[in-house]
Amino acid sequence: MSIINQLIKPASTAVAANHYSDLVNKRVGPSEILDKISNGSMCPIFHWNAIWHHRVVVELCAQLFEDKEQTAVIFVDLKKYQRMYNRMYSTMPLRSNKSFSYYLGVVALDALLYSKNNREKHLKVFHNIITHLNGDGAFVEGSHYSIFCSQSFDRVYDLLNSYYGETELWLEVCASMEKLQLWQRRISNKEGIVASIGDSWYEKVEPTDEYGKFEYQDMTIHRNEKWTVVEHHRKSPWALHEHPHLDEVLVSKGGKWIVQGSGMPSYKQVMAKPFRWRRPRNHFYVEKSFDYMWVWRLLKSKILNRHVQITSDVVQIIDKGYRTIRWPVEDEYKVDLENNIIHFGYNGAEFVVSGDIKSASKGHSWQSTTYNNSHKIDVLRITGNNLITTIK
């Protein structure tokens, strides 16, 4: 029956998320949740988004590690569940947040059940996934899924560390996760609110007072006491949850994000209105001739003529050549074509655009705020030569 349930009667993402919520909030214990999920439905061999099925296993292993006596009582049932879990499709060789969460469950079960035969085998695959996704620390699938992965990893860190100890591969995994969490703090503002990169929304990490210029393959981060600025180029390999940031610039002043990424409110909303959420002009990068859905992926390795400078008082974005740039705007803006200056405000900051300005017009974009929630943003499109945007 378990293999049939794995193949044709898998539990939905909503059911898996409810099981996880019950377990993490201690409404049920490990033995009760194992009884509920032992029929195989929570280990679907094929599923489009099984990350919460994986997260249940991670939480189950963490709780059982904290109560080793209970592990001994249900050891046989856990071994049966491990065999079902290992039959699931991991999305490999496509390395994504889904393969990360799946293999985190695999190595957590190995550690909990002390599976000596698989001690290095599964950890090598897990290491390969992290190396691809994390690279130099800037998670290629963006900020939200980086937090999902790092929080999941932290939950079973003590369990995995007790099993893998000082092995070289495990130390490399830990070093990569430390780089990831450092990057998360560097892309957060003074309040710890993380920049919306990729499919994401407003989330928080521990704030940092680390200042300077930090260069990654995918982006450059500028930080001082007042500003956090993320300058994008997105030169990474193809990633499942990335968005077309390209030369988009995200700007935070103090504890408030002034220019944020569009993010994604939920899969359900995106699939209902894909042209709203996947259109390139939902982002604040320079408009180009090929601004069509998905075509931006072919252009992402090209660094364009946009440069960022920050001081203690202002942020300047310099666009060389003939460009059409986009910024969020409040209701009113003032155009002084005689002096080639446009003034406008947004979210408590003042914008001044100067240069050889040809035209200005209004548009809009959409931004996710929390899961399943979003709002519409007015956008000012400015066309001209050698434009300089100063944010105060």
Strand content: 15-25%
N- to C-terminal separation? Answer: 64 Å
Apparent shape: elongated
**Total domain modules:** 2
Would you tell me the structural class of the helices and strands? alpha+beta
- Number of separate helices: 13
Give the rounded overall mean pLDDT.
90
What value does the Rg take, in angstroms?
Answer: 23 Å
What low-confidence regions span 5 or more consecutive residues with pLDDT below 50? none
Helix content: 25-40%
How many strand units? Answer: 11
Largest sheet: 6 strands, antiparallel
The main sheet orders its strands as 6-7-11-10-9-8
Taken in chain order, the helices and strands follow as: HHHHHHHHHHHEEEEEHHEEEEEE
Summarize the structure.
This protein has 392 residues and is α+β, with helices and mostly antiparallel strands.
Question: How would you sum up this structure, described in words?
Answer:
Helix content is 36%, strand content 24%. The mean pLDDT is 90. It is built from 13 helices and 11 strands. The chain starts with a helix and ends with a strand. The strands form 2 sheets. A 6-stranded antiparallel beta sheet has the order 6-7-11-10-9-8, with no helix packed on it. Strands 1-2-3-4-5 form a 5-stranded antiparallel beta sheet, with no helix packed on it.
Outline the fold blueprint:
Layout: H1 2-8, H2 13-24, H3 30-37, H4 51-66, H5 68-73, H6 75-86, H7 97-113, H8 121-134, H9 143-155, H10 157-164, H11 168-186, E1 212-215, E2 219-223, E3 227-232, E4 249-253, E5 256-259, H12 267-272, H13 274-277, E6 306-310, E7 315-328, E8 333-336, E9 341-346, E10 349-370, E11 373-391
Antiparallel strand pairs: 1-2, 2-3, 3-4, 4-5, 6-7, 7-11, 8-9, 9-10, 10-11
